[in-house]
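Data deposition worksheet. Section B asks for the primary sequence of the deposited chain exactly as it was used as input, without tags or linkers unless they were present during the calculation. Section C holds the resulting structure in token form. Section D is free text for depositor observations; keep each observation to a single sentence. Incomplete worksheets are returned to the depositor.
Section A, Depositor: J.P.
Section B:
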Amino acid sequence: MRALLALTLAGALSCTVGPDYERPKVEMVDTWLTGKAEAASLADVNWWELFGDPVLNDLIRIALRENFDVRLALERVAEVRARLGFVKADLYPRVDAAASAGVVHASRRSSRLATLIQDPEYQTYELFGALSWELDLFGRIRRATEAEEAQLAAAEENRRGVVVSIIAEVSQAYLDVRDLDARVGIARGTVASRKGYVEMAKARFEGGKTSELDFRQAEAELGRTESVLSQLERQLAEREHDLTFLLGRSPGAVPRGRPLAEIPLPPAIPPGLPSDLLQRRPDIRAAEQQLVSANARIGEARALMYPRITLTAQAGTSSIFLADFLKGPSGFWEVIGGLTAPIWDWGKNKSRVEETEARMRQAVILYEQSIRQALRDVEDALVAYRKAVEQLDSTGRRVTAQRSALSLSESRYRGGVSTYLEVLDAQRELLDAELQQAIVLRERIVAVVRLYRALGGGWSGPPPSSPD
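Section C:
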């Protein structure tokens, strides 16, 4: 009994070896290269308020409920949570029950029991409970639990990262579909216009006003425009299929909401403070939790270099006669404390500690890398948005100029001042300008999505399977 009390006291006075976690100091910039650093951030805006398109909001809700990556991330969290319970259970005593019955043939030379009975063959019956408990004297189990808790937090952050990514990917796919809708509309209108030019060129050729060359050039330009239309229609179908896959569904029709030109953008695009990324970006938060886990593994490995104390106890009933099995004299109990200490393991435990320390240093590098990547993503998105705004202005002027040029070239052609080649050039330039304007309009909105994602926007707090 004194030994038992001593072991219990030793457990109460246990310590935890290994380093406690401290966040590494990473140098952060104070401002952005292409934007003003301020407390307000685009990431503070909820995703359903970003563009104000109910159709897009519904698609995002569906994706957050049915997307395959979101569902997988949820199950990974459940897996890590179960593993944490498995590891944490070692902190507490384990109680088992056992029963046995059988026949034994004993040796008269080796068994004292055999000398007490005439027949060396006898029956045996046992029913007992067993308790086993490793006293976490040096914190091995506590460090392992700490590591798994950090892994669970990392899994939750990874799930949040998947949610942010899916919101961004669905938004971008939807914007691509609306962009392609616009470009297909431009191409279809141009094809109809080209057919009119073919009819005009044919009539002028048959009336002897122009040569056959003008007629054939008009037909060639119609064929080129129809080819552009076919290519855009193919891209539209493929992007619709991408969007339905993100929704976790088979290819099918995609609902439409506002055209790109009618989607309102936030009046300001504030990027917030660079230091806010440490708390906003789920990938940075996940990388830090991996760092916490790696740090705890060092303590777990170091604890294996110290003695391990276990306590076992059994109590039950045992008899070689079934009639006496449950009678008082057949009861028994035992309490045993054990200590195991490593003496010489050829450097195994030392190497295990060195391995965990190396993994810790790797985790520090990955943590810093995730911060640098986040800063890069924000800077790229800011540049993309600023340049898209500039391009949208210049392409708008180009479209206006090309429409005037086409009108002038048509007048000159009808007046016999110029050849049809001048009209063809003006037609091609106008089509290219209109398609480019649609692309730049999409790029400006997508740049907002990129910045939103780079800042870690998409959700405030733990994301549910689908928003209300």
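Section D:
Residues 140-206 form the longest helix (67 residues).
The chain has one domain: 15-95+138-308+348-454.
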